[in-house]
Amino acid sequence: MNIVKRYFNDLLNFLFPELCVICSRTLVAQEQEICLHCINDLPLTYFHLDNENPISKIFWGRKDVVMATAMYHYGKGNKIQKYLHALKYQNHPYLGKKAGLVYGNVLKNNLEISQCDFIIAVPLHDLKLKVRGYNQSQVFAEGLSESLEIPILNNVLNRIKNTATQTKKTKEERAKNVKGVFEIKNSDALKGKNIILVDDVVTTGATLEECCAELNKIEGLKIYILCIAAG
Ligand SMILES: [Zn+2]
């Protein structure tokens, strides 16, 4: 970068400093969207170290789901709530990618997950995708794909119906709300494969259960579920 350009950049940063999306501290040069202080403070679950973790237990009884895990604890007012809010509603797709890059690096040591064949993100309905401009689960998948070196498979799992928001719904209402929402297409490449299915937040697991019910139509498919956070 030449001196004039650098001077101009410094001036821009001085006039319009980039702020951490969580704590609003001014970011320094190496930081992007979130400060190091906040990154180190995000509440990790370490669920990936325990196959009997609370997220895996949601899917017990499903033979196709080998294990499930979430990277962070989601709680009212905690840092990960702010993180996810910025990711979903404030046009910060990089936060999803960042979570994927970090989690992928952690999961490289997991022999089963790191040897999966494909990554599939829970799809957004086209309408929502248009409004938001990106799918937060897809950007998480992109980060995971880069660090785990596992390709993403798009257009297999499709969302054919839009749904009302799942917040404030009971477990039964959530399950009913997502019934028949997903559809499988072009699934030949997935026979007998191991896939990583990713979503942003897991609460009752209704959306992921519904995805698995569709994916289960594919012979011999094994599923590992990874989420950014568990609420
Ligand atoms: Zn911060």
Structure description:
The protein is α/β, with parallel strands linked by helices and 231 residues long. It has nine helices and six strands. The strands form two sheets. Strands 1-6-5-2 form a four-stranded parallel beta sheet, with helices on both faces. The protein is globular. The structure holds zinc ion. Zinc ion (ZN) binds at residues 20, 22-23, 25, 34-35, 37-38.
Count of DSSP-assigned helices? 9
Mean pLDDT: 92
Globally, the shape reads: globular
Tell me the distance between the termini: 44 Å
Q: What percentage of the residues does DSSP assign to strands (E)? A: 15-25%
Q: Quick one: how many beta strands?
A: 6
Order of helices and strands: HHHEHHEHHEHEEHE
Helix proportion range: 25-40%
Quick summary:
38% of the residues lie in helices and 16% in strands. With 231 residues, the chain is an alpha/beta fold. The longest helix is centred in the middle third of the chain and has 15 residues, at 93-107.
Topology, element by element:
Blueprint: H1 3-15, H2 36-41, H3 54-58, E1 65-73, H4 79-89, H5 93-107, E2 118-121, H6 126-132, H7 136-148, E3 157-159, H8 171-177, E4 182-184, E5 194-202, H9 206-215, E6 222-230
Parallel strand pairs: 1-6, 2-5, 5-6
Antiparallel strand pairs: 3-4
Helix pairs in contact: 4-5, 5-7
The chain binds zinc ion (ZN).
The site of zinc ion has 8 residues, from helix 2.
